[in-house]
From TrEMBL, chain A:
CDD domains from the UniProt entry: Rab7
Primary localization class, coarse: membrane
Keywords for the protein's UniProt record, in alphabetical order: GTP-binding, Lipoprotein, Nucleotide-binding, Prenylation
A molecular function GO annotation: GTPase activity
Taxonomic superkingdom: Eukaryota
Membrane-spanning residues: none
Classification via Pfam families: Ras (PF00071)
SMART domains named in the record: RAB, RAN, RAS, RHO
GO CC field: cell cortex; late endosome membrane; lysosome; phagocytic vesicle
Family per similarity comment: Belongs to the small GTPase superfamily. Rab family.
Name of the featured protein: GH18481
Species per Swiss-Prot/TrEMBL record: Drosophila grimshawi
UniProtKB/TrEMBL annotation, chain B:
Ranges of residues in domain EF-hand: 851-886
Biased composition (Low complexity): 1228-1247
Name assigned to this protein: GH16582
Ranges where the Rab-GAP TBC domain occurs: 462-650
Keyword terms: GTPase activation, Repeat
Encoding gene (name): Dgri\GH16582
Highest taxon, organism lineage: Eukaryota
GO MF annotations in UniProt: calcium ion binding; GTPase activator activity
Amino acid sequence: MATRKKSLLKVIILGDSSVGKTSLMNQYVNKRFSNQYKATIGADFCTKEVVVNDRVVTMQIWDTAGQERFQSLGVAFYRGADCCVLVYDVTAPNSFKNLDSWRDEFLIQASPRDPEHFPFVVLGNKVDLDNRQVSTRRAQQWCQSKNDIPYYETSAKEGINVEMAFQTIAKNALEQETEAELINDFPDQIRLNSENNRPGNADNCQC
Amino acid sequence: MWIQPKELMLPLALWTGEMYSKYFVMQKRRGHGESRSLGSMLVSTYDSIRNTKPAPYRIVHQTSSSDVSYEIAIGITLDDIVKDWEWLQVNLFGVLNEMENDVEVTNFTIYKIKSLFTQNNQDNTGETPDFKVKTSQFRQIFKMPEEERLVNSYSATYIESKIPRQGQLYISLNHVCFYSYMLSQEIKLIIRFAELENISRSINTIYMKTANSMTYNFTLLFNLIEAHDLIEQLNKMAIQKLMHEPESPVVNHNPLNFVRFGAKASNKPVLLRDLTARQKSEEFRAYFHLPQREIIDGKIKADIWTPYSKRFNSGEIYLTTNFFCFRSDVKDLVSVVIPMKTIKSVEKKDDGQRRYDNQIVIFTSDNVPFIFAKIIDRKVLISKITDMLSSTDIPVNRERAKYDISWSKQTALLNTFKTQFSADIKKKQELKLARWEHHFRDFGRGISMFRTTDVINLIVEGIPDKLRQEIWLIFSGAIHDKENNPGLYEDLVEKAALLKNCAVHDEIDRDLPRSLPEHPAFQCTDGIGALRRVLQAYALHNSKVGYCQAMNIVTSVLLLFCDEENSFWMLAGLCENLLPDYYEDKVVGAQIDQGVLNELVDSHLHDLHDHLENLGVIKMISISWFLTIFMSVISYESSLQILDCFFYEGAKIIFMISLQIIEWNRDDLLKCQDDGEAMLVLQSFLEGIYNPEYQVPPSTDKRKMDRPQTQTVQTLIHEAYTKFGEEITQQRIEELRNKHRRLTFRQFDIDNEKIIVKAHVQNAYFDRAELHMLLSIIREEKLALKSVQQQQQKMQSYLSEAPQLLQSPTRSGPTDVMPGGGGCGRHQAYCINFEVFHTLFLELAPWRKCVAVDIAEKLFRLTDKKGNGYLDFGQLINAFGLVCSNKSIEKLKLLFMLHLPPLLTKAETVRSRRPRPATKDDAEEAIEAEDFFDEDASESIEALPSPSDHNFEALMNSTHHLHTLAGISGNTFMDLSRTTPNFSLNSNASSLAHRTSIFYVDLPAALHGTATCIEAGQDDDHDIGLRQQGRYESIDTFSDISDLGASRITPPPHASTSAVAGAAVAGTAADQMLNVETISNFSQISDLIAATGNERADSNATDTRSLGSLGYMLDQPDEGASAAGRQNVPNMRKENFGLLWQSIIEIMDCGQDEEMKRAYENLIELGNSNMKQQASLESFTQLNFGGSGDEQPDSNGNPTTPAAEPSSKTRLIVALEEEMRQAKLKAAGETGAATTTTSGGSSSSTNNSVAWHISINQFIATALTCERIDKAFQTCTNIVEQIEQLQKKRRKCLSTDYNY
């Protein structure tokens, strides 16, 4: 496992397909909106330097594919994540409903040390659109029920709240960082082709 | 079985005669059967070592005058051979006796047998009798069902702890089996293909490793490669089967039944030939990019005349039903594909001047001649081609239904949206076009062009836009599918357009603008519409794939150059042939290829491999590379050229390019500290790849322009070919894919198991290791091949026994999606049906010894709350966990409930009374005893004093005290000691509603109603009964029961004095009466409802609902913690109790001792006294107080589980007290009921209350007084041990006979 400098934050963006994950990432990193993004296959990746609590940290933002059949690939991206951003589309109720399963899936696959207090941030995107279908109250209630996840309503197109949301993300990720002191306890993938590895070893992990 | 008569020189060696006649001997092979003499041991060892193992019985024909004998029949079993012997007796003995000399007799016999043999073999597939014998031996030894077909067997040595064992390796469709019998030591091994994790071979040994880390080494002297390849192939088939239909094993597909020409008829088994042909065909199809269904019919050596080089090239002709193909021996020198339907004529050419013999000329419909020479079997080939031509599939022009949809097929989008090239690039394009035209002149055009290295070179340089459609279509093979299915695309488009509310369509729609947004064609409706139609049509065409992101990106590029229909067929070819399984669930094909790439990196860029592996980079980057053929990571202009090569080369180009990209960035990658850095390195490199020969006007996306240019795509492709083109072949990729397919699936299993274990680790019974074991055994059992016939038989026997089960197990599968969204798929993988549950229960659970009642079936029905015939893993844990645990009281409670109706039906109790041969003596004893007590029932004890009110209150206080002592708390107990009925009701209502929400019953409302009823009841006793019954009309029966349960808990216990409480008692009394009587027999529920005016005739519905309520009662969280948790469990009737006791005896697996008999008597008496309720109370108290007082010291001295003892005793007492309180209330209710006898319902229930019955608490309390029962039920079963035993047994092929 590679050792990471303390000034690196790994942030994963999850959510249904076409809720605006790529747009949010690009709005934040490049301050630009385009309606010409291709659907993300596998994962996309950006970095940005941010100042949090007078510290300069590099934020690694991983933008993932939203379609369900790509979910099982998550393991490769999730490991060592410091914060997970759950995005839904305020005009698509289903994308809101699926937040639950995205969150569960992340916790299962990433196996963070302290799943109860792992920092999530929920973003309700596309608030610039008129046909809103998920109310702020409903979203807030859900966030409260999940250990008070911070909630922001954003528009990647108009750049509403994006900066602020990512500031929170960075801040929470950094807190997680200091708490966990960078001990990465994600179990290494079992390598079936190596001789010494037997399935029994899978039980030895601390997860 | 008659065989071709065979001469024998030594008819007696190794055989013993069994039956004799004048001319015939029936013999038995030594070493079969019981005889353990040295001789037979040696013979069987010899048999085992010899490659062909003879059948154990045979009939030999011999005459006294001749030394030569003839083997004329063989048999696997005595019955087989006796049948033949009898035939001889009837038909031959008489005739032969009349013959004059022995020669005539022999001739006649042999003639007769030969004709019998041919007659019997006419209907057959042409297996040799030897193989038939082997097949039946295989089935017999390994107890394989008829469906499991043997492919071949090999003589092999298995090395077990350094001792070599010689025997036979049997390879069947789903298993590798090994049997050895040496010096009276028998070894059987069964390995399922689906569980193989690793297969490899050395010079003379095949190594195999299974998912549970067992390794096997078999040494083969002959046919090693054949055996290995066969194992590989069958393993691949098994895993592909797992991928697509996980529930069913590989069964024999339609045999191919073709006759191969050019090769001598082989004596190999049919199935083996079939499989080999499949294997060969696969390689062949991949090479020529032919449709899936093409199977090689044969191949033959020949030379082809290539006009462009004016010479003959040696190679092989391949024939399939629809194609005539040629491939040169020198790799890639030349190959040709000629569709049969284009062949106009086939002629022999025998010009004298030619020095080559055996030439043929084939003319295609374009009048292009193809000359082949040096064909050895020319005649056969020509006749074969003629056959083929007559049987070629002719595409049917299907009559299409007309839909009311107007659309027009979009032509290649580039025709409308022309690329604006600079003059320079335009010139280059034209130059390319000219070169292609030139090439066509020399090598031909269309499908049947000569495919040579020249064409590869042209493709590598990039196909000009105008030709892309044509070349792509030909080389991808999509053209064949298209031509075979005219009109299909239009049909699909229209059907798809009519689909409404389709989730796949939503997904597609969302991605339409996100496919190739930079191209103007996809910024308007033309492109978007065409893209939608193609994707929707494909989702309909191949529902297994449906729509997967990345397909949109690929298709949009196709649409630029090809018309809609061609794009559709190319997409189909891509998904089904070129990138197998890529777009399926979990994108498994791409995941497998990630493994392949990883291994290729290891062998070609070894220094980088470990570093990349540590960073986990390959897994991250390659998915998008594979799924979009680089189109999502490299600019569209550049990726086009890779796509050109891809359609010609297939997936191997992706690997080559990937390796090249990684190699170019070697230094930068080595410097990377984490995955992100590596991603950035590769990302910026890929974005910098450009195509100088295909520059389009500056893109609007400025981000791309910022990147410095890195490499031209031409250099990339060129370098990739020169560096890796030689070493990475299709064949190598296929081999690696086989390996990684296994590993990927194994990894899926491991991941799944981990996640499921994680989800269930908080259960009450098993720890992590035990859960893992359980999962692995479930997986194995689900894969186990079972005879369909057996299953049907079993199923039928269940159906006749328990009609209620009919609905559940026959359902198709767990269709209703479980809560939890994304996780449902993986949990479903471990859902088990009744079949598997039954097997597991009988193999693992400590209650398997129970034969009188099919406990497994009852337990399954009790646990299967959804009633869909499947248990999820959590339910299984609960069921097994309790049975295997040491919680004696709960186990007894469960056992009690399993013997209640509707689980134990009347039919069963009646039937079990009839003497059965399988029933053990004890059980019969029990029945007799029961009958005996039946008569004695009248002698009930009546003279015992009843406890006064004062006594009662004291008891309650002591209960309280005991509870606190035992540290038992919880809702139920709290409710018990509450004085305000309202409050407790409410708290109960909420908790009940919470627990039972899955039943979709409006419980809170119902309970609220009850609450008000009871409050009202304080004013008017008279009304209560009616009003309560009124409620029952309106709500579901099930909620009645839980509702009753809830309200039952409410009676204020300190109610002895106050008037208010008295009214409440009366209120609950009416309720109570209903409760006891209703629940005491579930079948009465419907009666009751009918009596109160509700005409519910659906007794089945009642049945399942009451089942649900039983399940619910079992699940009450505080089960066993206090007696109150059990109080709504209905009472038991005598017939059921008889069986229950029998089950207990069977579970304990030893005869009844005195103590148990006494307990039984006690219980019977209790039941008797329950008939007269007032009396019962007294007798009960007396009995049990005496009992428990006596028992206490005994049990305390019991060393088995001293810690658990006090609490269980406490519970016991609590149970008794609770029981008494109940009885008291009941008694009070009796008077209430007497005054309010208003409806027929109560009169009918009065009848019932007189019947013999026993309550759960009485049962548990009494049963536990028996030391042996107590002990037996407190024994914990080690599930891991049980599973390991079972696994061992399975591998060694020992089966258990269940008592059905």
